[in-house]
Write a structure and sequence with these properties.
Elements lengths: L1 H16 L3 E7 L3 E8 L6 E4 L3 H14 L2 E8 L6 H19 L8 E8 L2 E8 L5 E5 L6 E2 L2 E2 L1 H14 L2 E8 L3 H20 L17
Parallel strand pairs: 3-4, 7-10
Antiparallel strand pairs: 1-2, 2-4, 5-6, 6-10, 8-9
Length: 213
């Protein structure tokens, strides 16, 4: 047992001392997106997507998830925000997946209930290796500022598919569109923070009874 404890402590020290950082650069005929993330950061964010409301939401992920995020994007904004919004989600998901690597030692599951004034949103997620989104938001208006609120779902679809996570989003209350969306991103950030933490009792071990994710 003492040998096992020493091994666990050694694995925990190694995992926590090595920053989990990834950079992904994705270019298409519609967008040019580069994302750098550090899962073991302090919550700093540099976001320049050309979509102010999306930048604001990326700051929520960074701040409440304690993830350092740098997102630089250029897109076909003259058409609309759809391609840029989606491709930021894709690239962020790829960077998240890359930073997690084989996912050894992570808690894996995260759950958080975030209030924002009258809005209350729950997010539960699992870095399972099986992409799935269950989306339960009922946003009352079509726009927040210039941002099309339909793009919230498109962002999470892209993020889920490319990070290979299972994500459930449930709206328990809310009337203000801004509050509902921001509560969602805050809950997502907090749930992600819980899920990517290193579990000292499983350091160096893939958190699955199958032995693989």
């Amino acid at each position: 047992m003492q040998t096992t404890n020493r091994q666990l402590n050694s694995n925990y020290d190694r995992l926590t001392e090595t920053p989990r950082i990834a950079t992904v650069h994705r270019t298409t005929g519609e967008t040019n997106v580069q994302v750098t993330i550090n899962l073991d950061g302090r919550g700093t964010c540099k976001a320049a997507t050309g979509i102010p409301f999306l930048d604001h939401m990326l700051h929520q992920i960074a701040s409440h998830g304690l993830i350092d995020i740098d997102v630089q994007a250029k897109g076909d904004w003259e058409i609309d925000d759809h391609h840029t919004n989606e491709d930021v989600g894709i690239t962020l998901g790829q960077a998240l997946n890359q930073a997690l690597g084989d996912r050894k030692g992570i808690v894996r599951f995260g759950n958080f209930l975030a209030p924002l004034d009258e809005a209350l949103v729950q997010v539960a997620l699992d870095f399972s290796g099986r992409p799935h989104l269950s989306y339960g938001l009922q946003i009352p208006t079509q726009r927040v500022g210039t941002y099309d609120t339909q793009l919230v779902r498109e962002f999470f679809v892209a993020l889920v598919n490319h990070s290979q996570m299972t994500l459930h989003i449930r709206q328990l209350d809310g009337m203000n569109s801004h509050h509902i969306i921001e509560a969602t991103f805050k809950a997502f950030a907090r749930a992600t923070r819980l899920a990517v933490e290193i579990d000292p009792r499983r350091a160096g071990v893939i958190p699955s009874s199958k032995g693989v994710l």
